[in-house]
Specification:
The protein is of the alpha/beta class and 231 residues long. It has one domain: Rossmann fold (3-Layer(aba) Sandwich). Strands 2-1-3-4-6-5 form a six-stranded parallel β-sheet, with helices on both faces. Strand 5, helix 6 and strand 6 form a beta-alpha-beta unit. Helix 1 crosses helix 6 and helix 3 packs across helix 4. Bound molecules: thiamine diphosphate, iron/sulfur cluster (SF4) and magnesium ion. The site of thiamine diphosphate has 18 residues, from helix 3.
Length: 231
């Protein structure tokens, strides 16, 4: 009896895509972020079964459906809490969080700052489009002052806060910002975020938190047909 030796083929970006229908508006910046994440994943050398993407609720939080890894589309604002519990229980997993400016800075703001100060080795990808996209456009904590939305018909009076400054204040050890329209920069940032392992050891073996700021915005040029942008 002959025994065939099957050599495992290296993974490609396609191995990280799913057959799920992507439900973002044509031209939404989230497509680019998805593409860059799928592009860099094979090069990280992590077995797919060891990657988990946890999201909250929002357009951006649909991300785990489109990644062929383990994942959880969880509860509004609670992706950070769920992901930190997972990382505490299974430190060998590569845990990625997808959250929006509403999900991670409004309803989930409290969990975000405590995740950062506790310094877990997880990657937070905050999709900041300065609006609640999924619920049809209410102003968010990062919306500019005087923003006219359905919830602020006369313009918002709140001062937006800077998520990077918030992360600095919470002592996050890797903080970076990129844009959907700059794929190379975004890929580099994602790789560095993954590679970042800090020196701050507490109760967990690898204790670092990285915060990736991915600015997701509607790009009319790429839209197959004109749609009303969410911001
Ligand atoms: C407890 C709870 N409150 C409110 C909502 C409604 N809700 C769903 S998504 C969302 C905001 C999403 O905004 P963001 O996180 O910025 O994501 P985006 O859609 O812009 O990507 C809100 C308020 C909800 N699903 N659950
Ligand atoms: S509403 Fe905004 S964030 Fe949501 S899919 Fe459409 S363009 Fe993207
Ligand atoms: Mg948003």
């Amino acid at each position: 009896m002959s025994t065939a030796i099957v050599t495992p083929q290296p993974l490609t970006a396609k191995d990280f895509a799913t057959d799920q229908e992507v439900r973002w508006c044509p031209g939404c910046g989230d497509y680019s972020i998805l593409k860059q994440v799928q592009t860099i994943m094979p090069g990280l050398g992590i077995p797919k079964e060891n990657i988990v993407i946890v999201s909250g609720i929002g357009c951006s939080s649909r991300f785990p459906y489109y990644m062929n890894t383990y994942g959880m589309h969880s509860i509004h604002g609670r992706a950070t809490a769920i992901a930190s519990g997972l990382k505490a229980a299974r430190p060998e997993l590569s845990v990625w969080i997808v959250t929006g400016d509403g999900d991670g800075l409004s309803i989930g703001g409290n969990h975000t700052i405590h995740l950062l100060r506790r310094n877990f080795d997880v990657n937070v990808m905050l999709f900041n489009n300065q609006i609640y996209g999924l619920t049809k456009g209410q102003y968010s904590p990062t919306s500019e002052t005087n923003k006219v939305t359905k919830s602020t018909p006369f313009g918002s009076i709140d001062h937006p806060f800077n998520p990077l400054a918030l992360a600095l204040g919470a002592d996050a050890t890797f903080i970076a910002r990129s844009m959907d329209r700059d794929p190379k920069h975004l890929q580099e940032l994602l790789k560095r975020s993954h590679a970042h392992k800090g020196a701050s050891f507490r109760r967990f073996t690898r204790t670092v938190t990285s915060l990736t700021m991915a600015h997701s915005r509607y790009s009319p040029k790429k839209a197959a047909k004109p749609v009303k942008p969410c911001s």
